[in-house]
Each structure stands twice: as structure tokens, then as C-alpha cells.
Please model this.
Amino acid sequence: MLSDRDEAGCAAIADKARGLGAEVAYLAGDLRQKSYCEALVSAAVEAFGGLDIVLNNAGIIPAAPSRKPATRCGSTPWASTSTRCSTSAAPRSRT
Model:
């Protein structure tokens, strides 16, 4: 299941993956919105029959990036996005 804010970019990556033989679905939207995270999880469950793993690979880079490791940045938009997606996915996990 692919996710991105850019619909066209997401579709292009999905097409490339399909060209390599992958089974792919995508949903474009804003991961900062809880309703989108829930819709993304629902779309993945619908497309693939359930969730085996969730990989949070979203982040927001500030205008002046911190030199601190992500684990020491506290409550950042990245941390909120990551938590929001995991919280939406956990009840729907097959494991």
C-alpha cells in the first residue's frame, strides 16, 4: 500500500511497481490527518485482506534541520504522524 500527498507521483510509483510484477494499491492524502490514516488502513485491508506489517516512512523536515537524532527531537510532526498511522493500523493487524 503506497501513500503520498501527491496523487500523480503515487500513481507513477505504483505503475512502476506493477511493471515489475508487484501487487500495489495506493491512496493519496495527508498523513497528518487522522481520518486519512484510518482511510489508508481501510484501503490496505480492502486491497490485501489485512495488515501484516506497517512501515512508517513519513517525515517533515523543518526549514533549519536539527542536528539531533530523531529519537531526541521530542514531539515533532514526524512523531505525531508515525503514532497516528500505527494507532490506526494496530486494531486491524492480522498478527
